[in-house]
Amino acid sequence: MSESVRSFIAVPVPAETASRLAAAQERLRASGDDIKWVRPESIHLTLKFLGAVEPERLRALWQSLREALAGQRSFMARLRGLGAFPGPARARVVWAGLAEGAEELGALAARVEEVCAQHGFPPEERPFRAHLTLGRVRRPAPNPGLEAAIAAGADAELGEVPVERVLLMKSELRRDGARYHVLDEIALL
């Protein structure tokens, strides 16, 4: 029997944009040490988290997704602004937002979701909100410093993400944080 692969579907972030996001993380760091920051090289736009999946099922899903995305045009996503879920006053997740390309990314995520549903993956319960996770608050509580830092970065220009490829990623959980590995990719037109 094959071992399951903890996996997700994502769009990669170019190194130059990852550097700009790392600079934004540095500005936010002064607000406290209760945040687990995502390593800049690991920041990505998640389209769908799959969880632990058997390799055969993953291959079948990926083939269907490859067929479904044939003819999908690439586009540019422009990043702007910092925010938090559920909100800056009680942040659990600190993120960078999209100024352009969110609608196209939402449509791409919906197509991915549709194909995943055809393969028996449960649909995401929350609506898709295009963002890049920068950090996760370990123990959410009011943090005026973090709230102010997020407000100060609300209109920050954070770079661009050319949405030219969709990646199948493997997530390896380790003591020092998750490590991601590309298993396969689909190039967009």
SSE diagram, text form:
Elements: E1 5-12, H1 15-29, E2 35-37, E3 44-53, H2 55-68, E4 75-85, E5 93-100, H3 102-118, E6 132-137, H4 144-152, E7 157-163, E8 165-172, E9 179-187
Antiparallel strand pairs: 1-3, 1-8, 2-6, 4-5, 4-7, 5-6, 8-9
Helix pairs in contact: 2-3
Report on this structure.
- The protein is about 30% helix and about 35% strand.
- It is built from 4 helices and 9 strands; from the N terminus they run E-H-E-E-H-E-E-H-E-H-E-E-E.
- It has a single domain (about 5-185), classed as Cyclic Phosphodiesterase, Chain: A (Alpha-Beta Complex).
- The mean pLDDT is about 95.
- The longest helix has 17 residues, at about 100-120.
- It has helices at about 15-30, 55-70, 100-120, 145-150, and strands at about 5-10, 35, 45-55, 75-85, 95-100, 130-135, 155-165, 165-170, 180-185.
- With about 190 residues, the protein is an alpha+beta fold.
- A 5-stranded antiparallel sheet has the order 2-6-5-4-7, with helices on both faces.
Which properties best describe this structure?
4-stranded antiparallel beta sheet; alpha+beta; 5-stranded antiparallel beta sheet; 189 residues; single chain; Cyclic Phosphodiesterase, Chain: A; globular
A few lines on this structure:
With 189 residues, this protein is an alpha+beta fold. The chain has four helices and nine strands; from the N terminus they run βαββαββαβαβββ. The protein has a five-stranded antiparallel β-sheet, with helices on both faces.
